[in-house]
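Weekly structure sync, notes
Attendees: PL (lead), two postdocs, one rotation student
Agenda item 3: pending single-chain targets
PL asked that the sequence for the first pending target be pasted directly into the notes so everyone works from the same version. It is reproduced below exactly as submitted, 332 residues in total.
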Amino acid sequence: MTPQDFERVLDKTCDILTDVARNPDYHSSSRFQRLAQDMLKVAARDCDLEVEPTFHPHAFPDIRANGYGVEVKFTKKDTWLAVGNSIFEGMRDPDVDKVYVLFGKIGGETEVRWGHYEECVTHVRVSHSPRFVLEMEGERASLFEHMEIAYDDFATLDDEDKMRHVREYSRNRLQAGERLWWLEESHSIPVQVRPYTSLQTDERRMYRAEAALLCPQICGPSRGAIGQRKYIDPALYLLMHHGIFCNQARDLFSAGSVADHVRPLYDDEPYISRALRDIELLMRDAALRLDDALFDEYWGSGCPPVDRIARWLEMADSVATDWKPSDNLFRG
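Predicted structure, written out during the meeting:
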C-alpha cells in the first residue's frame, strides 16, 4: 500500500470518527484510542491492511498497519495542541516506518483530523523528560525545520545527539536572564537544595568566586537593563550547579559582611571592587579548574584556562561604567 492509499484510509477514518466521537461514551483518551483503532479497521475493510496495536501499551506510535504508524491524540478542549511522546522514542515500534497523527478534538465543534507526524511537531516541552508538542492547525514551521534536520534522520540519532539538537533549538529561544537548567549536559538541580545562608564562610567564598568569574556583568551599573538582571545569572548558577538557593542575589556581592573588612584602594572605590578583590585568589583557582562547558554556556564561547582571567577583565571593563575593573583587580 502506498502512502497515498493509506492517507485515503485516514481521510475516511476521520470522517467516521468525527461523527461517532460526538457520543459521550468515547470522551476519554483510552476509549477514543480504541475507537480510532476500530474505525481504522472499518475504513480499511476493502484494503489489504492489517490494523493492530503496537507491541506494548506504552510503545510509540499507538497503532501499526503494514509499516505505517498512527499516534492517537485526544482532547476535550477546543484546541489543536497536544503534548506528544518523548523525543527519545525509547519504545518505538520497529515495524513502523512512517508515522501519522490522528487527533480527536471534542471541545467546541467536534472534529477529527490526521497529519504527518514530522510536520505536526512544532516545539519541545519539558516535564520529567523532553517531549514533543503537536499542533494540528495553522501555518507554521515544524520543529525539525527549525533544527534543520529531517525527522527520519533525527529518529535514528542516539539520545546525546538528539539532546544536542534540542539544546541548540532551545538556546535560540531564550530570553534575557533565562538558562537551560533542564537541558544542560553537565548539571541538574540536586534533590537537596541548601540555602546560601547555611553555608560555612569558606564555602560561600568559593561559590561566590565561581559565580563572579562566570558572570562578569556583576561589574556593570546598578541602573538600566544590566542592573535589573546582573545578579540573576550568579544566583541561577549556584542553584543549577550546586543546589544552593540565594533568596537575595544582590547580597552575594553587596552585603556588608562580604567586603567591609577589605580596605579601599581609594576613597570612592566601588563596593563590588572590594568584594571581588577579597576573592581574587579563589577566582584564579576557579579559572583553572572549572569545566570549559561552563564558559561556553555563560560567556558564549570556551576559553583556555590560562586566558580566562584576562578575558574576564575584558568583559568586566566592557560593562562597567563608573570604574575600570582592570585597574583594580588581578594586578599582581
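Discussion points:
- Residues 186-191 have pLDDT under 50 and may be disordered.
- The chain has two domains: 3-171, 194-328.
Action: rotation student to compare against the earlier draft before next sync.
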